[in-house]
User: What shape does this take?
Amino acid sequence: MKDNNDTITSTLTEERRFAPPAAFAARAQLGDPAQAQALREAAASDPVAYWSDAARQELRWTKPFTQGLDWSRAPHAQWFADGELNVSDNCLDRHCESGRLHKAALIWEGEPVNGNEPEVRTLTYGQLRAQVQRAAQVLTRLGVQKGDRVAIYLPLIPEAAIAMLACARIGAVHSVIFGGFSAESLRDRINDAGAKLVITADGGWRRGQALRLKDVVDEALGHRTPTVTSVLVVQRTGHDVAMSAGRDHWWHEHMEASKATGTSVPVPAEHPLFILYTSGTTGKPKGILHTTGGYLTHVTRTFKQVFDIRDDDLYWCTADVGWITGHSYVVYGPLSAGATVFLYEGAPAFPDKNRFWDIIERHRISIFYTAPTALRTFMAWGEAPILKHDLSSLRLLGTVGEPINPAAWVWYHEVIGGGRCPIVDTWWQTETGGILIAPLPGVQACVPGTATLPLPGILPDIVGPDGASQPANAGGLLVLKHPWPGMARTIWGDDARFKDTYFSRVPGSYFTGDGARRDSDGNFWIMGRVDDVLNVSGHRIGTMEVESALVSHPLVAEAAVVGRPDLLTGQALVAFVTLNLGTPQHPGLAEDLRQHVSREIGALARPAEVRFAAALPKTRSGKIMRRLLRELAGQGTVSGDTSTLEDLSVLEALRTADE
Ligand code: WTA
Assistant: This one.
């Protein structure tokens, strides 16, 4: 880790400021800068009072809380702990009872199948509640009880949201696993959480192909998944799947046998809501645990503030439900705020590159939230498909997942936003639950390349290696100095790792793993990870995880994975591999290894490049010098200090090695 500290210097300087357009500010919920400033100051001086007010204003509590924050068990925050509520009640019932019964909650479009018009399904709040009520009964019938874990492995179809909300309705804890993960990864996550039930589909459509999800589940459950008693299968593609008698059940049959009745089960505010696995610096993914009251307060409040949501908006966040963005800003934040959410099952280039723009035009999407990597891809495709469509319904744009380079920001602003839409660059993490740093678009200028200021009630800082606060413009570690309601409560089954990863580096603060700088206006410029976690297409990938997958291949002796900058994906994975002694390097082996990683983890972790080497550069104490590998992978040469290198000839050999 020390390798990186001295490299936290930022060279980005960006002078452009994009003030809120007058037409936008005039209609914004928060359009008065003085009011926003007063809110920020009050929240900074008493964050607990600010968040307690938010919890009362934004949510319906079946039992009111009397205490805001209990930090006596630090670093385990307890927010609103003596209160009780239910997430599905807040996302559904309260809207059904207050005038939104017939308002659209979800508008979903499937990928067009076999050249047909795409299927569109609209679920009003009333219809969505009816589905969730039925699904909650199905879960109960299959033996799921409060506190039990349910694994969800689904394509992006309404049933994904229905399944999540049904778990919440009965107090079960869901663990959504992205549909791109392999059987191996799925099994690890099912076992780590001890899931009782798996909810999947026969398949989903992606780029014209049926992804056979049920087959992957069958492979994952083939052996060593002792806790799973049943599998619920949603029919989506209609292809044949094997149904194991006694274990597997059709979703639609069980839904038909259930009734749209029943209330939700109130749970204490600190009752677990979900586990979501994310990559860290070791080979084992971390099951980040989020709880009920604080999390929902945070995502509801920040969704309203950052997206300036109104009843007539149609909001589209392109994230999959398998990631935190899909949890907080596709399902829970927007539905708790009573918004209308658009969901799209497929990929942007299928059947052609008009897809997203056609969707925005046909559905009159007004808020669009996506990842910088997607924007860079659209830029590379050229403006023609965009200019063919009427995107005038858009009024606000957002980004998440990685730093956005100013060129992509300005392109987004001009070409997609027609120069009239503010862009909210939102910085946050799986562990933070919701957005922490982002502009308030009605009152604040957006600046390309920075997520700007912390939201009210959030207290970040930039510190040096000694934990001391850094002056303006000096790079350092991004930390949070005060607990916030959406923060992770622990790592499932590994509390020691939770404390060690987030709370040991900078005593008294939460350490984000990101390096950043704060400019003299207070804007936070994120400079990327300072640990061995890479950001590929906005997805976090631990290099150790990929290395363990590589060394599990019978021919591989040792592997080191590093990132190199990539114009489209932000970072790309480069694997340096040493084969077992005497193994000849045959053509196609690099491709075999890439496939092997796909099978072990999923295609998203497949290295862009595999390089073979007789040995890896190590220090005298045997530690792989990743800094040298990073330089080699990125620039093709090594410029830094090599005095601690054990064997210099290794570097020379690596420099000339290629695929
Ligand atoms: C990075 C995604 C710069 C950062 C919500 C963080 C960003 C990691 C931004 C979390 C942004 C996310 N600007 N960097 N707006 N948003 N990141 O857990 O390195 O998938 O620590 O959560 O993505 O990724 P995660």
User: Anything to note?
Assistant: The chain has 21 helices and 30 strands.
